[in-house]
Amino acid sequence: MAARVFAAVDIGASGGRVMAGLVEGGSVSLRPVHRFANPLVETAGSLRWDFDHLHREMLRGLRRLARACPEVESIGIDTWAVDFGLLDAAGELLAPPVAYRDGAAAQVVDDVHATVPPEELFAVNGLQFLPFTTLYQLAAQQRGLLWDRAAHVVLVPDLLAYRLTGRLRTELTNASTTGLLDVRTRRWSDELLRRLDIPRGLLPDLETPGTVRGVTGALGAPVPVTTVGSHDTASAVVGIPATTDSFGYVSCGTWSLVGLELPAPVLTPDARAANFTNEIGVDGRVRFLRNVGGLWLLQECLREWNSPDIDDLLAAAAALPPGGPVIDVDDPALIAPGNMPARIAAAVRDGDSDGGRGGRVPRTPAALARCIVDSLALAYAHTLRRAADLTGRKVEGIHLVGGGSRNELLCRLTANEAGVPVVAGPVEATALGNVLVQARAHGAAPATLEDLREHLARASTLRRYEPT
Ligand code: LRH
Fold first, then answer.
1. 63, 163, 328, 435: which is deepest, by most CB within 10 A?
2. Quick one: which atom of ligand 1 is closest to the CA of 279?
3. Residue with CA nearest ligand 1 atom 4
4. Nearest atom (ligand 1) to Cα of 231
5. Hey, where are the domains in the chain?
6. CA of 233 to the centre of ligand 1 (A)
7. Helices 310-318 + 408-418 axis angle, to 10
8. For 310-348, what is each residue's pLDDT tens digit?
9. Do you know which PANTHER family this protein is assigned to (predicted)?
10. What does the pLDDT look like over 33-61, one tens digit per residue?
């Protein structure tokens, strides 16, 4: 039986890729076809994404894929969450999308909270507070020059799908990161839209993963574009090779998304106080998690040090003794780009977050890398313990997926801090989740998430780290 082919476009904050997903019998595998950078650019006084570059590179990858695999059956697109473009009434992008690391949204948070207090926001949208959630970014746009001309607010993966199909929709899992969705009804919240003065007509209608969005002729023969969990984290969670339901997860890329999968949201005051989020996953599952700092901290240091070999650096970090300094990886002072080694050293110097570890200020690249990895591992363990307390569930093991699953030191330290085994991999959980949701929609993969994950557990090479 020949493999069936599905194209995954997966773009994260630090890079994009187009992959061919091959689904055959009980197995699924990926062939990388094209990788490209996703640099932040500064234009018109804001940090932005170069959307035309992303669109071009997506097309380049898809055309290459279609040449190699003309039988490709469908395309699915996922990207990072929360960011959007404004389209005018003719469907033209008014400006490249502002990036969530731009500081403008943080400046209007107090104004927004004066209109709708944070506890009322949480009661409707169930989200953790993050200063760049779409609703704050929209409030910043409302004060800007383009707002009067905006006819559509379109999330980044939906913008790419629009360029391919001409159809405007908002995919549900990503809509749940905007802060404007009612987490119980899973519809746009008319109440929040009214109070925040955002016309409902600006937001395209919702669409769930597994629906065919439209067809593109951009590759030659017409190919359907299938809506997947277009929030990369939603696809990553589909791509967790779990074989039980008592697992915690860390989806570790630019961010670490750390939490549990639940059947329903947890909207208690304690969950809000602990800053947990209830994002909507594929098949209506709830991703009860926290955004914890991620590889961004390390990537930004590497950029500052002119990209030394990461494996050598991590080996040197692993050789350092345990018990060194740790920082609060969620410190908002670490969100913006630039000067990361100095900011981490300052966080150690000024911080009281080292749990009494009384660390010396790290100065060498190895010491800084170790400080970052120690801090991430500690934050993962702490977050999963909190998640278990808040939900009354047991976490018997942790699935660590995404780029961070390659980092053996991080996996080992996470198992030690959490006191439960860590199963590392797949690195490309997001692209796999993207492919499997398409494959299922086209009758090439099983119906339930549990069966899809069984598929993956069989097909993936995973590493297991026992706590010591
Ligand atoms: C991870 C991610 C995360 C969001 C952030 C903006 O890539 O999508 O889930 O909170 O980017």
1. 435
2. 9
3. 81
4. 8
5. 4-231, 242-425
6. 7
7. 40
8. 999 999 999 999 999 999 999 989 999 999 999 999 999
9. L-RHAMNULOKINASE, SUGAR KINASE
10. 999 999 999 998 999 999 999 999 999 99
Closest-CA residue to 380 (of 270, 260, 289, 250): 250
Tokens, residue 56? 């071009």
Residue in the block written with tokens 């890398």 = 369
Q: Is 232 in the pocket of ligand 1 (CB under 6 A)?
A: yes
- Examine the predicted complex and report whether its ipTM is higher than 0.95: yes
Same fold, 4-231 and 242-425: yes
Give the side-chain half-sphere CA count within 13 A for 321. Answer: 5
Residues written for the chain: 468
- The answer, yes or no, to whether any atom of ligand 1 lies below 6 A from the CB of 12, is yes
* CATH code for the domain defined by 4-231: 3.30.420.40
3-state helix, strand, coil in the chain (%, to 5): 40, 25, 40
Of all protein residues, the one whose alpha carbon is nearest to atom 7 of ligand 1 is 80
Q: Could you please state the CATH topology (level 3) that the domain comprising 242-425 is classified under.
A: Nucleotidyltransferase; domain 5 (3.30.420)
- What's residue 184's pLDDT? 97
What is the spatial distance between Cα 167 and Cα 183, in angstroms, rounded to a whole number?
A: 25
Cβ within 8 Å of residue 451, ≥6 positions away = none
Ligand 1 atom nearest to 177, measured from its CA: 10
Written as six digits, the tokens of 382 are 């702490």
Q: Which residue has the higher pLDDT, 26 or 31?
A: 31
pLDDT at 406 exceeding the cut of 80:
yes
Record the tokens describing residue 35, joined without a space: 């990788």
Supply the pTM of this predicted model: 0.97
User: How would you class 338 by CB atoms within 10 Å of its CB: exposed for 0-12, middle for 13-18, buried for 19 or more?
Assistant: exposed
| pLDDT of 17 above 70 | yes
3-state secondary structure of 151: coil
Catalytic residues: 232
